[in-house]
Amino acid sequence: MPFLDIQKKLGISLDRHFMFLSAEQPYKNAARCHAFEKEWIECAHGIGGTRAKKECKIEFDDFEECLLRYKTMRRMHDIKKQREKLMKEGK
C-alpha cells in the first residue's frame, strides 16, 4: 500500500476502467463488448486460470473478436480488394 494514495483522497478510481470493460461507465452506457465479457467471466468464475483457458475458449474468443475485430477488419480488407479489382476491370 502506498504511503500517499492520491486516487483515494480524490475519490476517483482510474484502475477500474483498465480491469473490466463492464465496469460502471461515465455516461451509464454499456460497453460494446459487455455481453461477451459477461459470458466469459461467468464461465471462468471459480474454475481457475488453467481450466478456464480450456473450458471457456469459445467465450474468450468471442470476447476477443468483439474487442479487436480482426475478422471484421480482414473481411473489410477483402471487400476493398474486390472493389479495386472490379474498378480496374471497368465494372
TrEMBL record:
<protein>
    <recommendedName>
        <fullName>NADH dehydrogenase [ubiquinone] iron-sulfur protein 5</fullName>
    </recommendedName>
</protein>
<comment type="similarity">
    <text>Belongs to the complex I NDUFS5 subunit family.</text>
</comment>
<feature type="disulfide bond">
    <location>
        <begin position="33"/>
        <end position="66"/>
    </location>
</feature>
<comment type="function">
    <text>Accessory subunit of the mitochondrial membrane respiratory chain NADH dehydrogenase (Complex I), that is believed not to be involved in catalysis. Complex I functions in the transfer of electrons from NADH to the respiratory chain. The immediate electron acceptor for the enzyme is believed to be ubiquinone.</text>
</comment>
<keyword id="KW-0249">Electron transport</keyword>
<feature type="disulfide bond">
    <location>
        <begin position="43"/>
        <end position="56"/>
    </location>
</feature>
<comment type="subunit">
    <text>Mammalian complex I is composed of 45 different subunits. This is a component of the iron-sulfur (IP) fragment of the enzyme.</text>
</comment>
<keyword id="KW-0813">Transport</keyword>
<keyword id="KW-0472">Membrane</keyword>
<keyword id="KW-0999">Mitochondrion inner membrane</keyword>
<keyword id="KW-0496">Mitochondrion</keyword>
<keyword id="KW-1015">Disulfide bond</keyword>
<dbReference type="GO" id="GO:0005743">
    <property type="term" value="C:mitochondrial inner membrane"/>
</dbReference>
<dbReference type="GO" id="GO:0005758">
    <property type="term" value="C:mitochondrial intermembrane space"/>
</dbReference>
<keyword id="KW-0679">Respiratory chain</keyword>
<dbReference type="Pfam" id="PF10200">
    <property type="entry name" value="Ndufs5"/>
</dbReference>
<dbReference type="InterPro" id="IPR019342">
    <property type="entry name" value="NADH_UbQ_OxRdtase_FeS-su5"/>
</dbReference>
